[in-house]
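With this grant's support, we have settled on a layout for protein records. One resulting record is reproduced below.
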Amino acid sequence: MPPLLKRPRRLRRGVALRNMVAETAVTRDDLVLPLFIKAGQGLRTPIQSMPGHCQWSLDTLPEELARIAALKLPAVLLFGIPEIKDAVGRDALSDQGIIPQAVRLIKSLYPDLLVITDVCFCEYTDHGHCGVLSDHEVDNDATLLNLVTQAVCHAKAGADIIAPSGMMDGMVRALREGLDQAGFSHIPILSYAVKYASALYGPFREAAEGAPQFGDRRTYQMDPRNSAEGLREAQLDVEEGADLLMVKPAQYYLDVITRVKQRFPELPLVAYQVSGEFAMIKAAADAGWLDHDKVMWESMIALKRAGADIIITYFAKELAVYAARESV
C-alpha cells in the first residue's frame, strides 16, 4: 500500500501546533459583560437562574467593577432597574435615573472601561413592554421620542456606546438624529438589529424585573421562523446610521449571524449569548452532564466561527479566567 500523502492529523500534534494553525480565536477583547444595576442600598442580590450574577446597587457596584478591572475585561453592558416603575418609564428619561448615575460612577472609577447602555423601556415600565402604550399596543412613534431622550441622558452621563433594543421601526434614525443634535455625533450606535421574540429570555426577565404584565412582544420582536427578514431589518438599520449590528439570541441563530456578516462585512457584528443560553449550560454542568468550561469555550468558538466579532455573554468573567489558564 503506497504511503498516504495527505494526513490532516500532522497539524494536530501538540498544543502549540494546534494553536498556531487555529482558524478561530476568542480573546478577552471580544467580550462584553452585562450588569444589572438596581436602585437601593447595599444590594448584591443573587439572580437564581443566572449563577454568579447579581443585581447591584450603586454603593456595591464598585466591588464588581474591581473584579472586572482585575480580569481586564474591556466592556460592560448596563441594564437598569428603577425604584419606581410607571406607565412611560420616567426614570429612563431623567439625568438622575439609575443608569446615568451608574455610568457616571463607572467612569469616575474606571474611565477606560467601555460602557454600553441598553436603550429600551421594559425594565422601567409597570406594564413591562418596551415603550408607550396605546390601547394595549406599543405606540412606535411615541416611543421613538422617549428613546431619544433616554439615549441623550446616557450620552451626557458618559456612555461610550448607545444600544437600542426595543425593535421599534426607525429607532436608529431617530437616535442618530437626536444624538447629533445634542452634540453627540461621536457616539456610536449598536443596534439590536435582529432581535427575536425568543423563549430564551426567561432568566433575564427575572434579573431585570421586566416581564410583560400582559401579552408578549411578538408584535415588535422578530418571528424565530424568519431569517431573510433579519437581513431586511439589518439593512434598514445600516441605512439609518447604525455603527454596529447585533443578532440576539446567538446560539440558536448561528445561521443568521453568518448571513448578516456576509451581507454587511464592513460593520462589526455583535452576538448576544442570552440568559437562557447561559442558564442551560450552567444547569447541565451542575447536573454533571457536561464539562462546564469546555462547553462554555466551545459555545464562544461557535459564535466567532459563525461570524461574530464581539460577544455579549454572562460567561465573560469565567472566560477571562479560562483563557488565561488553558491552552485549547
